[in-house]
UniProtKB/TrEMBL annotation:
InterPro entries: Glyco_hydro_31_C (IPR048395), Glyco_hydro_b (IPR013780). GO terms for molecular function: hydrolase activity, hydrolyzing O-glycosyl compounds. Residues 19-104 form the Glycosyl hydrolase family 31 C-terminal domain. Keywords: Hydrolase. It holds the Pfam family Glyco_hydro_31_3rd. This is Glycosyl hydrolase. The keyword Hydrolase applies. The keyword Lyase does not apply.
Amino acid sequence: RYQLLPYNYTLSFLNHQRGLPLMRPLFFAEPANPALLADASSYFWGNDFLVHPVLQSGQQQAEIYFPKNGPWLDFHTGQRYAAGSRAAVSLQADRIPVFVRAGAWIPQAQGLQNTTQFDVSKLDLHYYYDEEQTLSEGMLYDDDGLTANAYESRAY
């Protein structure tokens, strides 16, 4: 969780500024797809992560829908899944199925043990390359974490 602190802090900023939730339903990607209105099997974490929680003990495989705002890359293995597709994904006991939208820029912090150690000058910037993605953009919001109304007072 500490590695993703810069990503999550940016999501929190976007929540504050635009009201965008951190955890988002699949229909956010495809509002015209009625099948997704009741689909709670997966969710977005921000715009760039697709998470599929495992809710049954001993489950070996999951049928996962990969929304059309992909393609999607397995966060752990890099395996590619086409946008708008379904796939039976083998589950691992030591991790939750997490996928990253192709073309995403994910800032990650290095070696944190707590939030007070965060230093924006020590970031790893991960780009999830896919040859179909010819345009991509990202955002990183940072402030000192202490100043009230930092954005409004331009202290960011």
